[in-house]
Amino acid sequence: MLALEVEEFLAWMLSEKGRSANTLAAYRRDLTAYQAWLVERGRTVLDVTHQELVQFVTERKASGSAASSIARQLAAIRMLHRYLAVEGDRPNDPAADLEGVKVPSGVPKPLTETQVNQLLAAVVGHDPIDYRDRALLELLYATGARISEVVGLSIGDLDVDARLVRLFGKGSKERIVPFGSTASGALDDWFSARGRVRLIPKEWHRRDDADAVFLNLRGRRLTRQAAWLVVKKHGRAAGLTSELSPHVLRHTCATHLLDHGADLRVVQEMLGHVSISTTQIYTRVSQERLWDVYRSAHPRATL
Fold first, then answer.
1. Catalytic residue among 34, 83, 131, 282
2. Is 273 a catalytic residue?
3. Looking at 75-84, 106-115, 137-146, 263-272, which range is the least confident one?
4. Which of 47, 75, 104, 160 is 20 to 30 A from 123 in CA distance terms?
5. Which candidate in 19, 81, 132, 273 is catalytic?
6. pLDDT per residue over 135-155, tens digit each?
7. CB within 8 A of 221, min separation 6: which ones?
8. Which helix (H) or strand (E) holds 177?
9. Is residue 247 annotated as part of the catalytic site, yes or no?
10. In the predicted model, what is the mean pLDDT of residues 26-51?
11. Residue 282 catalytic?
């Protein structure tokens, strides 16, 4: 059980900062592990020292944990101790000058346009699940949405005629994103008499399921995990041996937009990035792909 001060911090993150359920669950896991480490040393969040936090980071590094995992846990610990200091629960913030963990900047590995076509063509058949999977994949690639945003969609969030979708990103921030005719056609098939309506149960399990855009075989809202498996399944069917995930489709959408001349700020808005620096990762990817094409195609590129 977490200490009262930690529970109050998580409640504050929900009510005052509007953090999502997924973010809060991650914070809870990280802080539970942190508290267990403190308990082993006879310490609490109210009396841990800066030097002990340094020791915590050192031990985490020595354990072989990924830098990204340590950095994420440190972010939760820093926010907790800043909160405790501001609220007056302790006289100082032991994490204020804590050195961070450098996370290597991983360059996304997007699919090529040919690979995207292979993936989308791999969804064959005319069962309701086929229509659902095709619409799901087309919408992910068309909008660059996070998988949690897509499975969280309700019917009222879609304007199929205008080809617009309302997405709720991190911190429940809302944005409107367009999608093209191919995704629109796939959604039309899914909402036809051959698709979604055939998965509607005699009685809804939850009221929220009735509004869900994407349903599972039992007529419930499709989960994030199930949608992830849909992407993997059709990736294998398309013969894509690279690591394929919904996030790869998000990277791919952004990269292809920039490849075809989209403005960086527009891509930032579409993807719901708070900082333009996050979106700028994709400019590096596009430049690298440009050089790959140049080296393979230009007769004097390697002279």
1. 282
2. yes
3. 106-115
4. 160
5. 273
6. 999 999 999 999 999 999 999
7. 151, 206, 208, 209, 212, 214, 215
8. strand 174-178
9. yes
10. 95
11. yes
- Which of 90, 224, 247, 289 is an active site residue? 247
User: CA-to-CA distance for 187 and 134, rounded, in angstroms?
Assistant: 8
Give the whole-angstrom CA distance, residue 269 versus residue 264. 9
Residue 17: predicted pLDDT: 81
Is residue 294 a contact partner of residue 301, using CB atoms and an 8 Å limit?
yes
Contacts of 226 (CB under 8 A, 6+ apart): 151, 216
| Whether residue 218 lies in the annotated active site | no
What's the token pair of residue 107?
A: 């360059």
Looking at domain 4-86, its CATH architecture is: Orthogonal Bundle (1.10)
Report domain 113-296's class.
Answer: mainly alpha
Owner of token pair 């993150």: 13
For the chain, what is the mean pLDDT?
Answer: 88
List of residues 6+ apart from 213 with CB closer than 8 A: 150, 153, 154, 155, 157, 158
Find tokens 């059709």 and name the residue: 234
Smallest CA-to-CA distance from 36 within 63, 3, 8, 61 is with 3
| Phi, psi (deg, nearest 5) at residue 29 | -60, -45
Q: Which of the residues 19, 132, 134, 250 is marked catalytic? A: 250
Q: What is the pLDDT of residues 276-296, one digit of tens each?
A: 777 777 766 666 665 665 676
Tell me the pTM: 0.65
φ and ψ of 120, to 5 deg: -70, -30
Task: Give 238-269 pLDDT, tens digit per residue.
Answer: 998 667 889 899 989 988 988 888 888 888 88
- DSSP states of 23-51 as a string? HHHHHHHHHHHHHHHHHHTT--TTT--HH
Least confident span in 109-113, 129-133, 220-224 = 109-113
> Average pLDDT, stretch 52-66?
90
Residue in 50, 78, 170, 233 annotated catalytic:
170
Q: Checking DSSP bridges between strand 158-159 and strand 174-178, what pairing results, if any?
A: unpaired
From the candidates 146, 221, 234, 256, give the one annotated as an active-site residue. Answer: 146
pLDDT above 80 for 87? yes
Q: Which residues contact 59 (CB under 8 A, 6 or more apart)?
A: 37
